[in-house]
Amino acid sequence: MGLQPLEFSDCYLDSPWFRERIRAHEAELERTNKFIKELIKDGKNLIAATKSLSAAQRKFAHSLRDFKFEFIGDAETDDERCIDASLREFSNFLKNLEEQREIMALSVTETLIKPLEKFRKEQLGAVKEEKKKFDKETEKNYSVIDKHLNLSAKKKDSHLQEADIQVEQNRQHFYELSLEYVCKLQEIQERKKFEFVEPMLSFFQGMFTFYHQGHELAKDFNHYKMELQINIQNTRNRFEGTRSEVEELMNKIRQNPKDHKRASQFTAEGYLYVQEKRPPPFGSSWVKHYCMYRKAAKKFNIIPFEHRSGGKLGDGEVFFLKECTRRHTDSIDRRFCFDVEAADRPGVSLTMQAFSEEERKQWLEALGGKEALFPSFNRAIIPRPEGSAQLDKMGFTILRKCISAVETRDVKTCNEVDLENSIDWEVKTITSALKQYLRSLPEPLMTYELHGDFIVPAKSGSPESRVNAIHFLVHKLPEKNKEMLDILVKHLTNVSNHSKQNLMTVANLGVVFGPTLMRPQEETVAAIMDLKFQNIVVEILIENHEKIFRTLPDATLPDPVTLSASPPNAPPRQSKRQGQRTKRPVAVYNLCLELEDGDRPNLPKEDTPPNSLDSFSSPSPTAAAAHGPPGPDKNHLLADGGTFGDWASTAPSQARSSTVQWLNPQAPTTPSCNTAVTPPSPKLASFPLSLPATVADKPPESVINRKARAVYPCEAEHSSELSFEIGAIFEDVQTSREPGWLEGTLNGKRGLIPQNYVKLL
Q1: End-to-end Cα distance, the chain
Q2: Angle at 340 between CA 337 and CA 344, to 5 degrees
Q3: At what angle do helices 463-474 and 531-543 cross, to 10 degrees?
Q4: What's 72's DSSP letter?
Q5: Tally of CA atoms within 13 A in the half-sphere of 176 that contains its CB
Q6: SS3 584
Q7: Where in the numbering of this chain does the Rho-GAP domain appear (predicted)?
Q8: How far apart are CA 600 and CA 164, in angstroms?
Q9: Once rounded to an integer, what is the mean pLDDT over residues 721-742?
Q10: ∠ CA 633-639-643 to the nearest 5 degrees?
Q11: Distance between CA 489 and CA 476 in Å, rounded?
């Protein structure tokens, strides 16, 4: 039961039960007062915690905004750029959210704390003051009555009458105060219901407004989130394909490191211990140096470097070689030693020690010593086996038959598949055979020569300029290559049009066919890092098949020289030296499309080093097929019936063999070769290909002692770089060890030059 009402008539009786009811009302008000006081304290703590949370969120957002992903190579894909920018998007999202949270925290103070404090001080405080007066008058009233009743009856009547009047006046005053107090008690009990709850309602309204704003932000963020999920999935798929290629290259190099040395501008390079003579009584010491020798100029560079001291790089020396002689152990108490004499330092001879006898022989060969027993130090020649697939009439027949077989195959359910009938297994076999044929061509369908040119637009520029650039380059392909590429891409476009059924989207097809249609001449980690851009090129071909293959390129593209003064359109430069990366301006590729063949600088790229051989370019069947999406994603790419989705699968060796027999019934079945080696699998000989293997185009050589003219202006960002204007002429231009850079001399100063900022003369 609730509080009993206080009747005004009871003020005159002032019974014990009336007093009990008053005390019950007073106790309830005291409990309400304590509750509101505690609630105000909790509200202030809530505001403080909200501000602390907001500060932590803002700090978190600040950290997200300031972090930037670094990437391997010289460019990012669009997906990687979106992922990189996502941290700033997340930061902005949190910032907007915290702005709303601050508004909510301010509203808590204004709508909850202040109204409750006002109610407690003005209303409950007023009742407390009334209680004090009531208690004081009660004490006074009954004290007066007690004193009055103790008056002697023997006093004069006038004195007693005066006392009676005074007591009556005092009782009337007490009754009036009691009436007011009772009225106030009951009023405050009713008032607190809305005076207290209304601020709470405002508080929750402000809180729900905050959550509503968060919901609106989430709705705005949802579209971006969906696109970002696609970017992440594409990047993950490309990562898996790249990782498999990197692991395969690592295993190849582990098995035979000599055959996979990086092409270099130096005839020989590596670590040697150099004897440093000291004055008596200290004798001599042997210091490890990284040595580089360029045979054409007989230039020898040595740089002290000690791994154990944290990789400290010392001051290097340069001298020109006069002669090199082998040291015998009877003349020095160390093995693997040889002497070099400097032509520009008469009488100066340095004793050097290799790590092994084999390495000493290689250095002697490179330096022109007496023991020239081994081939060149930095180059391994692996001849391409004969009998590879050819881009001839039979090749086109294979392509058309395979595509026709795949596209006309009926989709079957699990219950309809007949495991006893080999026809139901042919789709995967056919698709694997077709990819194997394309990989076994002497060079990829999109050629080694144009490989780097195809990669460039995928790394930069607007979507329209990328399509225009790819369009232009496709029409520079040899006619047979372009014709076969047209047939294949048309088929892939058809496959992608059924992606809802077979889950082979354009992005997935790019992952599968990027490494098949495009390959660099030399297998390096840097080249593998460009796999994702190969995938993008294939995506562009599929999405724009009609425009690229059915129309001629735009002949009105601007000449790059006439627009070279525009800095934002200059080609992107590579990263700075010693790991100091600076974001370069993004290139618009269509500026480079008008270069004539004779004007195009024949420069080595990091992903295609000079003098690299075509024998490095054929990945193993296992590796090339491994570019399909990994893990569970790969399974999702397969259609239930196995028609278009089979492009993502790799057929087992028995299936491949049966495919060969399907293509050529007279061909014998050859056992599968699954080892990860560079030459194509022996089973390729079963293809009915009649023409002999062609000789690959000779790769570009290192740039040595050439002249070059600047076609773009450049301002140096490092002391090792050169600043120059358009038209500047460089002397003694050579390939630099820095990938993507040249070394040259301008106005007597020598330094680094971005290779895509100049044209060789």
Answers
A1: 105
A2: 165
A3: 90
A4: S
A5: 6
A6: coil
A7: 393-546
A8: 127
A9: 85
A10: 130
A11: 17
| One-character DSSP codes across 433-455 | HHHHHHHTSSS-TT-STTHHHHH
Q: How far is CA 629 from the centre of its chain?
A: 18
Beta strands (DSSP E) in 168-316 are 268-277, 284-294, 299-306, 312-313
**Structure confidence at residue 312 as a pLDDT band (50, 70, 90):** low
Is a pLDDT exceeding 90 seen at residue 493?
A: yes
Structure tokens, 562:
């006439």
Structure tokens at 523: 């297998």
- Alpha carbon 695 to chain centroid, angstroms: 40
| Distance, CA of 705 to CA of 139 (rounded, Å) | 117
Supply the DSSP symbol for 110: I
| pLDDT at 604 exceeding the cut of 60 | no
Instruction: Give the C-alpha separation, 438 to 472, whole Å.
Output: 23
pLDDT over 50 at 708, yes or no: yes
Average pLDDT rounded to a whole number, residues 699-722: 76
Contact criterion met (CB below 8 Å) for 138 and 174: yes
- Residue 416 CB contacts under 8 Å (≥ 6 apart), including other chains: none
In which element (H, E) is residue 168 found?
A: helix 157-255
Given a cut of 80, whether residue 593 has pLDDT beyond it is no
List, for residues 89-103, the tens digit of each pLDDT value.
898 889 888 988 888
Token duo for residue 114: 């202040």
535 vs 629: CA distance, rounded Å: 12
CB 755 within 8 A of CB 740: yes
What pTM was computed for the model?
Answer: 0.50
Q: Using one digit for the tens of pLDDT, what is the confidence trace for 165-217?
A: 888 888 888 889 889 889 988 888 888 888 888 898 988 888 898 889 888 88
Question: Percent helix, strand and coil across the chain, each rounded to 5?
Answer: 55, 10, 35
Least confident range of 159-168, 251-260, 309-318:
309-318
> What's 574's DSSP letter?
-
The pLDDT of residue 62 is above 70: yes
Mean pLDDT taken over the chain:
75
Alpha helix locations (H) across 556-628?
621-625
Write the CA distances from 584 to 154, 224, 457, 569, 753, integer angstroms. Answer: 118, 26, 15, 11, 14
Helix axes of 393-407 and 426-439: crossing angle, nearest 10 degrees = 150
Q: Are 608 and 447 in contact (CB under 8 A)?
A: no
In degrees rounded to 5, what are phi and psi of residue 640? -55, -40
Considering only CA atoms, which of 220, 239, 233, 616 is closest in space to residue 443?
616
Average pLDDT over residues 290-303: 90
- As beta bridge partners, residue 317 has 302
Q: Say how far apart CA 68 and CA 73 lie, in whole Å.
A: 15
Quote the tokens at residue 437.
């044929």
Contacts of 663 (CB under 8 A, 6+ apart): 398, 401, 433, 687, 688
Tell me which residue has tokens 């820095």.
738
Q: Which residues contact 9 (CB under 8 A, 6 or more apart)?
A: none
Nearest 10 degrees: Cα torsion 44, 50, 52, 57: -170
Helix (H, G, I), strand (E, B) or coil at 423: helix
Give the integer Cα–Cα distance in Å for 530 and 524.
10
Residues in the chain, total: 761
Which residues, 6+ apart, have CB-to-CB distance to 693 below 8 Å?
384, 385, 386, 387, 388, 390, 442
Distance CA 750, CA 534 (A): 36
Sign of CA dihedral 156, 159, 162, 164: negative
Distances (CA, A) of 212 to 201, 209, 215, 744, 751: 16, 5, 5, 63, 60
List phi, psi (to 5°) of 528. Answer: -65, -35
Place of tokens 């008539």: 9
Cα separation values, 21 from 7, 35, 218, Å: 10, 21, 55
DSSP 362: H
